[in-house]
UniProtKB/TrEMBL annotation:
Keyword Plastid: no
Physiological role: Catalyzes the reversible transfer of the terminal phosphate group between ATP and AMP. Plays an important role in cellular energy homeostasis and in adenine nucleotide metabolism.
Organism whose genome encodes this protein: Dioscorea cayennensis subsp. rotundata (White Guinea yam)
The protein's name in its UniProt record: adenylate kinase
Family: Belongs to the adenylate kinase family.
Residue numbers spanned by region Disordered: 226-245
GO molecular function: AMP kinase activity; ATP binding
Compositionally biased tracts (Basic and acidic residues): 228-237
Protein's UniProt keywords contain Nucleotide-binding: yes
Amino acid sequence: MASGGGVDLEEIPSVDLMTELLRRMKCSSKPDKRLILIGPPGSGKGTQSPLIKDEYCLCHLATGDMLRAAVAAKTPLGIKAKETMEKGELVSDDLVVGIIDEAIKKPSCQKGFILDGFPRTVAQAEKLDEMLGKQGTKIDKVLNFAIDDAILEERITGRWIHPPSGRTYHTKFTPPKAPGLDDVTGEPLIQRKDDTAEVLKSRLEAFHRQTAPVIDYYSKKGNVAQLHAEKPPKEVTAEVQKALA
Ligand code: ADP
Ligand code: AMP
């Protein structure tokens, strides 16, 4: 059978093809959405993103995940970003703007996207608006994960991640079924190098100084929804659903 893009469709089990077909049919009736998730490290953006992604058939673009992948692969971009990330400071605007400019053009972002961890400076927000303006689109909603700093150290130091899927666990709040292993695949979970109390201090400092002004920037445009990110995950999900309805 003819193959598309190097993939031999005959090799894919029928049940997988049917599942994908049904997903695409369901997605075709969903409205397009272009969302920004903004909040300090540990506020729950990565936890809520997969739920929003599935509900609205969006792509999830987390600049932190993309940069960590570049660091692991030792690409020129990763080599440039590594030291800054380890210190908990922000990498240059040009670097992340370039990544996002390329990523939002992917076919998986056709129905829209969730930007998680971007924009993190007003300059990044202005560049994003410019990029979207050229496409004739704009940001529909900014979800502000508002939370007190005091809660974040426990969240960050207890976080465990399954990098291939982006699933996130917490030793106390959402522990995996078996310690250190992903519930779905049984693969090992990892802790991020910058998820320490020490590096968190710089990350929070960067958030308040450079990223909080981005919330004001979008508030002036009138499309920010406030979430109570200190609430339990299910209650935050309910607030997200209400904000996006
Ligand atoms: P972010 O992506 O904003 O940095 P995460 O979604 O990775 O934050 O959440 C940080 C940690 O806190 C993770 O270990 C996650 O399991 C946990 N967590 C996320 N949301 C909540 C919540 N509402 N209540 C308690 N713990 C949470
Ligand atoms: P995160 O996974 O969102 O916590 O990001 C991890 C690190 O990646 C940050 O501490 C920054 O060093 C870097 N980073 C991620 N996104 C951005 C961004 N939009 N602008 C600048 N630096 C970023």
